[in-house]
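Q: Could you fold this chain for me?
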Amino acid sequence: MRSRFEEYYVKSGRGGRKLDDVRDKYQRACRRLHLVHNEYVLLLAEAEQMQRDLRSCLLPTLLHQHQATLQAFILNWRSILKEVAIHWNFTSRQFRDVFTRSEAHVDTIEPSDEYSDFLQRQTYVIWTSPPELVDFSFDNSLVEDTSGKLLANTLAVDNLTVEWVRGKLSETEPKLKECQEKLSNKNAHLQKMSEVELAELQCEEKKLAKQLEVIKKALTELGCEEVPSGCDIPIETNYDHNQDNQVWY
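A: Sure. Below is the predicted structure, expressed as structure tokens.
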């Protein structure tokens, strides 16, 4: 697209409607590229945070929840067997002896001990042989030919994307606040959450906080300076930010 613009303007010096069409298409293509870049940066930050939370929070919590479920299952069965041993001993001495022994064996069942070996092995695996790390690193080859307009792991904040970035900030802040309110001790429903649900909510908070950090960093670096141009075409144009607000893939 840039080569077409240079063909119509830089090399031949031609202007007119055709030049305006090429310039407009080039500017729209730049905007879409910059928006896709910003989405890519945010998704990488989200993926890295989720991977850390999976290893340090979600998997251990899931194992602990599984342990609690299994222990409750054993406790229920022990109660059932206890009832059987108590109510089925009104027979001959031989059968009473059998059920007396059965009752004694039932009393030896300890839910907390039944899966201890299994849980210890799984806990050991989680901490010593966790899932292999996936490398969520920025592909620098994607920004090699962007004239320095796009940088790895950095949101592009320019006249083509500044409204999108600010909109993303306005969208993420209330989500994070809502998540934090759910985790607040003042939330009456907090005690009703399962351990896994609570861990998932905590991970969601970290993910949103990470995204917000990336967005705020980009806007802070811009400061009060004039928003830079996102295109390197040699003609100034007034681009309508209300058009083409979606990211095209």
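A (continued): The chain has seven helices and no strands.
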